[in-house]
Design goal:
The chain is of the alpha/beta class. It is about 35% helix and about 15% strand. It is built from 12 helices and 12 strands. A 7-stranded parallel β-sheet has the order 8-7-6-9-10-11-12, with helices on both faces. Strands 2-1-3-4-5 form a 5-stranded parallel β-sheet. Helix 1 packs across helix 12 (about 300-320).
Length: about 325
């Protein structure tokens, strides 16, 4: 099948071309993100492959359908950037990679926790500057701490397994409790209770209408003073301005982010020579107790191989059968 691959980075090209060796699709790579301004670049491609920060709103999807596209191929798990209702109305099929080593994102989430609780980001810079003073680097043990996991699907469950090994008390909120987590000893509680009693809160739910700004001013107000908040799910699950207020008042003692509400204009690019225009993001960077990575939770050799293989298999399956087991259906929105 002829596939336009949008938002291409060198590693996308490398892993997709390797996986395409047997599949034999015609992959055409575009560096640009797909959005209303760039929709013309993928004209006449029956399949369009996109990533987390491509914008597939109703207008873009209508243009793609009119240009002959039949298949939208997400090379990620989340589908919050695609208007699934509009795609369905237009007869466009949307497929995704529902699972690809959840351990990659889970391990990155725990890496953020460990870096923050022992101030490794500050220690690294100090030692390089010949400053071996320990003031300001006092940490705490994870053992015995209460960790609240919001969303115990594939990634949340992997986080629970790792933190079980650290001796944490694990509580969770998820409308669909995970039997594997219950067997591990995870206790499911209402979200209000989770936010009130957790020493560490880690977010692993999808972004949808129910979870947009799940962590808002009211949620921050409920939290324990000095709480650690980790978000590797999607940026808009937290209200960034509410969290900044929480940092200013010291309610939030540590913040680890791999995702950011307005990351589309920043992440996956080298902007080191430019003046960043996003004042909210720049404010976040001023806090010594904030550690941000640029949406790299998925970025491991294992995950990229798995993503590329499933992406190519999804295309082959759709081309052969007209359907695909990894299709994003309206049921997934409910
Ligand atoms: P999953 O579908 O396996 O699990 C999501 C869980 O969230 C499910 O158990 C679901 O019941 C639960 N959930 C749904 N609504 C909820 C709500 N209102 N409150 C609490 N829980 C709710 O997904 P996953 O593979 O574990 O991925 C989780 C999210 O992680 C993805 O949606 C994506 O946004 C994000 N992600 C980030 C990266 C990264 O690189 N940082 C990579 C992959 C996925």
């Amino acid at each position: 099948m002829r596939v336009a691959v949008c938002s291409t980075q060198s590693y996308d090209r490398q892993f997709l071309l390797a996986a395409n060796h047997d599949a034999g699709h015609e992959l055409v790579f575009f560096d640009s993100r797909l959005c209303e301004e760039t929709r013309q670049m993928v004209a006449d491609f029956p399949a369009v492959c996109v990533f987390v920060n491509d914008t597939l709103n109703a207008a873009v999807l209508a243009a793609l359908a009119a240009q002959g596209t039949r298949l939208i191929v997400l090379r990620c798990a989340g589908f919050n950037n695609v208007d699934i209702q509009a795609a369905s109305d237009l007869g466009l099929h949307v497929v995704r990679v529902p699972a690809y080593s959840p351990h990659s994102v889970a391990e990155h989430s725990v890496a953020l926790m460990l870096a923050l609780n022992r101030h490794l980001h500050r220690a690294y810079n100090r030692v390089r500057n010949g400053n071996f003073a320990l003031q300001g680097l006092l940490g705490f043990e994870l053992r015995g701490k209460t960790v609240g996991i919001v969303g115990t699907g594939r990634i949340g469950a992997a986080v629970a397994q790792i933190l079980h090994g650290f001796g944490c008390r694990l509580i969770a909120y998820d409308p669909q409790p995970n039997p594997g987590c219950i067997s591990l000893g995870v206790e499911y509680v209402p979200l209000e209770e989770l936010t009130a009693v957790s020493d560490i809160i880690t977010l692993h739910c999808p972004l949808n209408q129910q979870t947009r700004h799940l962590i808002d001013t009211a949620a921050v107000a409920r939290m324990k003073p000095g709480v650690m908040l980790i978000n590797t799910s999607r940026g808009a699950v937290i209200d960034t301005l509410a969290v900044i207020e929480g940092l200013k008042s010291s309610k939030i003692g540590h913040l680890g982010l791999d995702v950011y509400e307005q990351e589309g204009d920043l992440f996956f690019q080298d902007l080191s020579d430019q003046v960043i225009q996003d004042d909210v993001f720049e404010r976040l960077l001023t806090f010594p107790n904030v550690l941000i990575t640029g949406h790299q939770g998925f970025f491991t050799d294992e995950a990229l191989s798995s993503i590329a293989q499933t992406t190519l298999q999804n295309i082959s399956m759709f081309e052969r059968d007209g359907v695909c087991q990894n299709e994003v259906t309206m049921e997934l929105l409910r």
